[in-house]
Amino acid sequence: MADPTVEQLEARVRARPLPRHVAIIMDGNGRWAETRGLPRVAGHREGSEAVRAVTRTARRVGLEALTLYAFSAENWARPDEEVGALMQLLADYLESERAEMMQNGIRLNAIGELDRLPGFVRERLDAARAETAGNDRMVLTLALSYGGRQELVHAARAAAAARGPALDADDLEAALWTRGLPELDLLVRTSGERRISNFLLWQCAYAELYFSEVLWPDFRDAALLEAIASFQARERRFGLTGAQVARPERG
Ligand code: IPE
Ligand code: IPE
Ligand code: MG
């Protein structure tokens, strides 16, 4: 049988319950460029095109929340030239996407140690977050200078200051940078790597994991739809038995 077209795939995905919150570890930009004999930054540039395409598709099918790992706390240790190029691309992206976010009802959000970002990025991020604050069709969260362990330390300190040693899981959850977002349903990583790389450690507890061989710059609407279709074919059990999940009324 021929592979389904993007339209068929999209119709199939729309006919079943969608994940509310999808997060993506956007990996493989460097390898995409290196296999073409290009500098790594060319891969990052093409990667920002994939961000645009995937955001548009996510919004069109009706995801509530899309979270993109754009720059990790550990990525600061890359060569200065690459970090500088990534910061410039990020600033350009924030400037060029504001109009489309407004047109599509997308609210921009950011998580991570945002005060480590250079001023020119921070200013554009703050402007885009302020401008889109009233939008409610989809929340697009960029993880920038983000680390899951760093988030947990921050949250533990904040929750302990507020609640003392009696703090519980709800207190910790309420102190996470992701507070207010829906539960994470699906975590996607591109480029064939099978690791979490310090992303959303708490939030991954019951997320479905999906690993794609596609390098991030080549990841477009069909690839996202395939990831969602894979999620829709799974049974999530949350510790229960298969029978309990299939017939929840019988306990
Ligand atoms: C992901 O692509 C983008 C960032 C981490 C900023 P990489 O730059 O990690 O690409 P590879 O893994 O070297 O191919
Ligand atoms: C994870 O990718 C971070 C982002 C995608 C932003 P990395 O390329 O930095 O992860 P490792 O080093 O392969 O674990
Ligand atoms: Mg990588």
Descriptive labels:
single chain; 251 residues; alpha/beta; Undecaprenyl pyrophosphate synthetase; 2 domains; six-stranded parallel beta sheet; binds magnesium ion
Give your account of this protein's structure.
The chain is of the alpha/beta class and 251 residues long. It has two domains: 169 residues, 3-Layer(aba) Sandwich (Undecaprenyl pyrophosphate synthetase), CATH 3.40.1180.10; 28 residues, no CATH class. The chain is built from nine helices and six strands, in the order αβααβαβαβααββαα. Strand 3, helix 5 and strand 4 form a beta-alpha-beta unit. The model has no long low-confidence stretch (mean pLDDT 97). The site of one 3-methylbut-3-enyl trihydrogen diphosphate has 11 residues, from helix 2.
Topology diagram in text:
Layout: H1 6-14, E1 21-25, H2 29-34, H3 40-61, E2 65-72, H4 80-103, E3 106-111, H5 119-131, E4 138-146, H6 148-163, H7 169-174, E5 186-189, E6 208-211, H8 221-232, H9 242-246
Parallel strand pairs: 1-2, 1-5, 2-4, 3-4, 5-6
Helix pairs in contact: 1-8, 3-4, 4-5
Bound molecules: 3-methylbut-3-enyl trihydrogen diphosphate (2 copies) and magnesium ion.
Strand order of the largest sheet: 3-4-2-1-5-6
Portion in strands: 5-15%
**Biggest sheet character:** 6 strands, parallel
Return the CATH architecture of the largest domain. 3-Layer(aba) Sandwich
**What general outline do the C-alpha atoms trace?**
globular
